[in-house]
Request: fold
Amino acid sequence: MGKLRDSVDARALRFAVGFPLMLAAAFVVCSLLIRSDLPEPLAVRWTGSVAVDFAPFGAVVGVGAAMIVLIGWAVLVQAVPLSRPAVMRRIMMGAGLFVSLFITTVLAAVLVGQLGLQDAGQARVDVAVLAMGSGAALGLGFVMGFVFKADERWSTDDDRAIQAALDRERDPDLARDSVSLWVHARSSVFVMLGIATLLPAALLTAAVPWLAGLLAALALLAAACLFARLQVDRRGLRVFAAGIVRVMDVPAGAIEAATPKEVRAADYGGWGYRSQGSSTALLVSSGPAVVVDRLDGRTLTVSAGSATTADNVAQVISRVAARARGAGGATDL
Reply:
């Protein structure tokens, strides 16, 4: 029972259960108030403008109330589990409110359209009630989606966040020994890539669709290779091609030195990931980069965006490497 309480939003659950019940009860009460002005049986289905199916008053009201409750529950209960994203819970809460009110509006329009008639064969659905009620239901659904506040609960993410805060409090230099950086090629390179691939692909779409799709896929792959993500912390250096694929992972204790340097991509075999002998490089453009010397004699070269960021990344790498080797805390270049 305790696990169930911890996994659901109690306030949302109470609303999800109670609102359709109260709405159905209100529908039944209002239907009984106008019972004497309604024909027996009631029209429930039309073909064009002619009523073709009929049902007793009790069946119409009973089935209608059951629809309000069951369909309302089915949608509103989706907003109850705490494991679901807050945005999804808000959407489902607003959708549940809208659906419940819309069903009630349709049922009310059916009943109001038959008021004062002796023969249900002449009945019509009251368009005014349907239009105004549907608009109100939609508006209230939107409002509920925005005002509903997902119940915040302590999670493992909060545990990690507070642990990180405590670590920073105990070690003020921790934040200085961590850097995350995205680098990419110049915008003109992406423009040239688009002209060289996407324009021919657009021209080939009508004639050879599969070749056009292949060119577009190659363009996206080439563009992704011109992005890279660098992460440096006290564990070492990690570099991700396209921001996803890890191509370099160097422990801090294996780093001898890091130096900012201006490089030419052509000297390393071009843009992208390159590995030649004891040298490995991931360059998205010519210009500022960081050259990392390993203790085993290998070198790594990574684009670093600008001269300022290259210098900062090199300093952080040198500092964490010195700390890992036990040489002290702050060895700035």
User: Anything to note?
Assistant: The two ends are 59 Å apart (CA to CA). Residues 48 and 124 are 10 Å apart (CA to CA). The chain is about 50% helix and 20% strand.
